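Hi Y.,

Following your request, here is the sequence exactly as I used it, all 755 residues.
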Amino acid sequence: MPDQQVITVLNRNNVQRRFQLMRSGSGTLGAGNIPVNLVPGDTAVTIAGKLAAAIKAQTVSGNSFLTDAFQEDLTSPVLTLIGERSVNISLQDNGIQIHGRTIFVDKTAGPNADGTEAHPFNNIANPARANAFGVTHPGDIIRIVGNGGFDAVPGNATTDEGYATLANNFAYEVGFSTLAGQSLDDGTTMEVPLGVTVMIEPGAIFKLRDSRIGVGSSSLGVNRSGSALQVLGTPERNVYFTSWLDETIGQDAHLPATTPAAGNWGGIVFRNDLDNAESRFNYEDEGVFLNYVNHADIRYGGGGNVKIDSVQQIVNPIQMLEARPTISFNKISRSADAAMSADPNSFDETNFLAPRFQRAGQFTSDYSRVGPDIYGNQLEMNSTNGLFIKIRTPAGNSLRPLTVSGRFDDTDIVHVLSENLQIKGSQGDPFLDLSRPPIDLLTFTPQTGGSLVPGTYRYKLVFVDRAGFEGRPSTATPAVTLGGLGSIRISQLPPADEDFVSRRIYREDVTNPGVFELVAEINKSDDQYVDDGNMAGGILQRDPPSADNVTLTSIVRGSLSSGTYNYRVVFVDATGKEGASSDPTSPITIGGSPIEGGIQLDNLPSATGQFVSKRIYRSEVGGISPYTLVAEIPADAASYTDDGSAIGGTIDASSFGVIRARLDARLKIDPGTVVKMEGARIEVTFGAQLLAEGTDGREVIFTSRLDDTYGAGGTFDTNNDDRQTGGESSPQPGDWGGLFFGPLSSGSIDHALIA
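Below is the corresponding structure, written out as C-alpha cells. Let me know if you'd prefer a different format.
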C-alpha cells in the first residue's frame, strides 16, 4: 500500500473529508488531509481497520460524519461505509478496490442524498446538482423508481391509484427546453456510465427533448463500456418515454401550452460497435445479455435534432449498433423515422463454441444467442413500422456490411431495407501472419498492492483479431525481478494494429522456462497494465523458439559451398509434429570447402513443455529459402556441427508465422420472416452465403416496403400511409432490386415469396 494515497469521502450533506494513508517516517501530509498512519507489517485487514477508525472519528457539528464505517469482520479487508454520497481514490490500481453498490433515484426525494433507499437522489445526471450518475463506480446498480405524483397514497408504495393518473406524476426530464441553451432538470443527456447497470422501475416517466438515452461508448475518448440498461415495466404499470412537450403524461413544468410531435426526441441507443473495436469489456462476450426493454410506452421519438459528440444525427426510439438487447411487449408510436433500427452486425448468431469463448475451460455447450430478441411489440403511427436495417453511417460516407454469421429470426417484426445490404465475403485463402508486436519500448515498474510472489519474470505480447485468432507472439521481454509481494506495472504497451482488436499478455516464471501463461486480455489501445498476480488461464501456443543467442562459427571440416548461411530451429513433440519456426539466426559467410566447409552452432535453445527434440534447418546460399532439414537433435543439446550433410526435406513456410483464416459472412433468414425493401438489394459477395429457407405455410417474404399484404408487429402498414390524404401508395414493379449472388458465393432459397 503506497503512502500519499488519498481517499476522498463525501457524505449525504455534501461535507467532504480526505483521508491520506501515511507510511511511518515518509511522505508529506497534504493540506486539509486526515492522516491514517501505517507501520511496517500492516496488512490489508489492519489498514481497513485503521481507515474505519479514522472515518468514525470524524464529526460535523457534533454529529458523526458518516452513519457508520466498519469491517465485515475483524479478519476481512472489506470496509463498509454507510451514509456516504461518493468515494474517490487518488491513485488507481494500488491495492484499493471500490465495490459496487445500489443507488436509488426518486424524483420526490429531498436534497440530502446518499443514494440509499432512505435518502435517494432526486436527479439522474445534471452536473449542476447532486446526481446519481456523478457518483458511480463500475459495478454499481442505479434504480430509478416511479412515483404516483400528488395523489399517491403516502406510505403505500404498492398502490396503483396514484400511478394511474399519469398527468400529475413526477417525471424525469432530460434534454433541452425550448429556450436556447437551457437544459432540463435531469441533464442534457442520459449516458449510462462505465460498468454501471441502470434499472428503470415500473411507473417511471421520462420526458425528453432533443436528447437520447445512451448505453455503451459513443466515442473512443470516453469509455462507457460494460454499461447496461433495464427497463422493467409491467402490464399494469408501464415505463413511459415521451416528449417533454407532451402535457398528457407527467407534471407539466412548462407553463405555455405545447403540442408534442414526432421526432421531439431521439430514443434509447444500445451500442457496442466502438467498444468491440477496442475489445473493451462486453457482457455479451460472456454470454450475459443484460440490456432489456419490457412493457415500455415510447412516443414521439426518432428525432433528427439529437447531437451525439457534436454530430447531429437521427436516433430511432430503439437503436442497436452491434448490440443484442431483449425488446419485448413495448408500444412504440408517433415516432419519426423507424420504430427500431439495428446495424447488420447486430444480428450476429453466437453459439459460444468458438475457442475464444472457451479459454476458462468451462462453458455451456448448447447455449446460443441470435441477434436482438424482439417479440410482442406493437408499432403504430411511426414513419416506418418495422425494424430498419441501418446501413449508412451517421457521417453518410460509408455503408456497414454484414461481416459476421448473421440471422434474421425475429418474425414478430418486419425487417426493412432502403440501402443495399452487402454480405461480405473474403477473397483468398488463409494468410500467413509474419509480423510480431514491437516490445522495444516496454518499461517495467515493480510495486506493492498485489499478490504476485517475489521472483523473476518475462513477458510476451500477442495481438488478437475479432474472431479470437492470435497473431505471432512477440519476443520475450528482458527479465524483471520483483523483490517483494506485489505487482508489476507494464508501461508503453504498443497498440494493436491492422485487423487486430485486442492484446494478450503472457508471463513466464524463469523457474519454469519456456512456459508462458496467460495473464490477461486487454483492449486495443491502453498503454499500461498492472500484473497483480491474477491469471486468466491458458498457455501460449505456437510459441517459436528464440534463436537470438545462437552463435555461428566457421570450421574447416565440412563440404559446404562458399557463401552466406543462416539457420532456423523448430521444436518437435513426441508424435513428430513440429511447432513454430524460430526467426533466422544471424547470418555467417564462409569460404567454403576445403578452407571453411562447416559451421558450428552454439547456444541452441532447449526444447520445453510437450516438445522432446528439435530440428535444425539450413538456408540456401545467400540466406534464402528453402530451408533444408540438417539434423534432429536432443531437446537439451546446446551445440551442433553442420558439415554440409542433410537429412533431406524442407521446412514448411507456414511455420514461419501464424496462419489466420479469412472469415466469410453468412445471413440466414428464418421461416415466417418478412423483409421489405425500397430501392435496395441484398448482395452476396465473394465467398459469402445467403440462406432463406421457409416452410410450407411459413414462407420467407421478400417484397416492397409499400406492400401492405404482409406485416408484423401489430400492423401491415409498414410505411404508415393508410391515413395519408389522397390514399395510400401502392407497390409497383421495380420498387426494389433483388437478391444478387457474386462469384463463388452460395445461397439456398426455399419456400420463399419474392414479390
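The helical segments are 44-56, 161-164, 273-277.

Thanks again,
Q.
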